[in-house]
Design goal:
Strand order of the largest sheet: 1-2
Bound molecules: nitromethyldethia coenzyme A, D-malate
Distance between the termini: 17 Å
Shape: globular
Radius of gyration: 21 Å
């Protein structure tokens, strides 16, 4: 851990000095105007925050520290025999700002393994909830129970100098990331597999072990998890989960409290819960039309019906993006390689052909193209992870990487 922490601090000190200098020189410079509709419509398009870890361009999509998703798929270290990036590598990149070596990534895997112990009272707290509770509710309750472990809150209470905040926020963030897969898998097995829990495998990487603890041993599914955990990790600072984590963190709430706030936002249907909504929407359509593979004409009619009922077409639209989300494309590429004949995947692709012109035709939807959530559920269903209520928890485990790396930067 020492090496990564030292590298992070060295980088953060340089950036902090640069920012101080920039503010001294240009602090009074105006960078934009604000219109009344921006104020009333959720601060759209106002440059109002800095996020170190990633940058979202409306046309091109996300870049993590300057790298696109295809570039990350090429440049980040992979599991033995695998082709998808290990999210440990993305975390290193977001935190330190440089591409990691294989050794850096293996180091991070073993640090997270070492820190992954979840105290029993967290499982007891989950068990106190009805099994029927939504997995995101169970997830947030578990994170709050784990907050008892926060080093930051203990050390702050004992008296902590401002210059040491970053150090303990860093440790809390690492602990939390290490423990989330165990908590999420516990909730999964509790809710859907009769509480038949699976012990962690200390030899696996973070995503591989997560897949294992949920009960998915296939190498292809583990590869999907590595891709999934990488592409969902960060989407600049304006989205609800990142913004909420940042906002609550600005009160010096510890990483557990801050991340729980972000997860409450991710649980909303217009944000992370949309992945569950997409699959629900596709299955309702299949049920209504009595077919596993609706035709493009039928899909078109169903999109129009959804709009006429005053509902959103889940998985389409975005507050910033104005083109197809590259995270959708990355998942479509994975599906082309591994499961092009799956009827749910084919339906997702048919919706992609049919929905955008209809959405555009309304004249008010600013982005008629698919976002990340339009594709993820179809892949999970293909590999047998059929319980769509759980999908947002997967998103949440991944999002921890981006928002907690950012929280470390905030404190440093
Ligand atoms: N289906 C129907 N109507 C839509 C859609 C859609 N997919 N997207 C936007 N609109 C409507 C929107 O409700 C608004 O209507 P009104 O004026 O009646 O309030 C109008 O179009 C203008 O909205 P936009 O400015 O285009 O979108 P906004 O930035 O406000 O919202 C989303 C962005 C993502 C919340 C919106 O596109 C949406 O609700 N999409 C469906 C839900 C979804 O897929 N969310 C996941 C986003 C990604 N993520 O993981 O967080
Ligand atoms: C995200 O990944 O957070 C979503 O695409 C929402 C957003 O960026 O606004």
């Amino acid at each position: 851990m020492g090496v990564i922490k030292d590298r992070f601090k060295a980088k953060a000190d340089i950036v902090a000095a640069e920012v101080k200098e920039i503010l001294k020189e240009h602090g009074k410079k105006k960078i934009g105007e604000v219109t009344l509709s921006q104020v009333y419509q959720g601060m759209r398009g106002i440059t109002g925050l800095v996020t170190e870890t990633s940058l979202l361009d409306a046309q091109e999509g996300i870049r993590f520290r300057g790298y696109t998703i295809p570039e990350l798929q090429q440049k980040l270290p992979k599991a033995a025999g695998g082709t998808e990036p290990l999210p440990e590598g993305l975390f290193y990149l977001m935190l330190v700002g440089d591409l990691p070596t294989e050794e850096n990534v293996h180091h991070l895997t073993s640090v997270w393994q070492r820190r992954s112990h979840v105290p029993n009272y967290v499982f007891d707290t989950i068990e106190a909830l009805p099994v029927s509770a939504h997995p995101m509710t169970q997830f947030v309750v578990a994170i709050m129970a784990l907050q008892i472990e926060s080093q930051f809150s203990k050390k702050y209470a004992a008296g902590l100098s401002k210059k040491d905040y970053w150090n303990v926020v860093f440790d809390d963030s690492m602990d939390l990331i290490s423990r989330l897969p165990r908590i999420a898998a516990y909730i999964y097995r509790r809710k859907y597999k009769n509480g038949d829990h699976i012990q962690p495998n200390g030899l696996l990487d973070w995503s591989g072990n997560f897949a294992h603890m949920m009960g998915y041993e296939g190498e292809e599914f583990k590869e999907l998890m590595r891709l999934y955990m990488t592409i969902h990790a960060d989407h600049e600072g304006g989205n609800v989960s990142a913004h909420a984590t940042h906002l609550v963190g600005s009160a010096l709430s510890d990483p557990y409290l801050s991340f729980a706030a972000g997860m409450n936002g991710l649980a909303g249907p217009l944000h992370g819960l949309a992945n569950q909504e997409v699959i629900k929407w596709i299955f309702e359509m299949r049920e209504e039309l009595k077919t596993d593979l609706p035709s493009k004409e039928q899909i078109g009619e169903y999109v129009k019906k959804t709009l006429a009922e005053g509902k959103v077409v889940p998985g389409y639209g975005h507050a910033v993006l104005r083109k197809t989300d590259p995270r959708f494309t990355a998942q479509a590429e994975f599906a082309k390689k591994h499961c092009p004949d799956d009827p749910i995947v084919q339906t997702v692709w048919n919706v992609y052909e049919v929905a955008p012109p209809i959405l555009e035709g309304t004249g008010k939807i600013k982005n008629p193209w698919p976002n990340v959530d339009a594709h993820s559920g179809s892949l999970l269903k293909h590999y047998g992870l059929i319980e769509e209520d759980f999908y947002t928890v997967l998103f949440g485990v991944s999002r921890a990487l981006g928002v907690l790396a950012s929280l470390c930067w905030d404190r440093a």
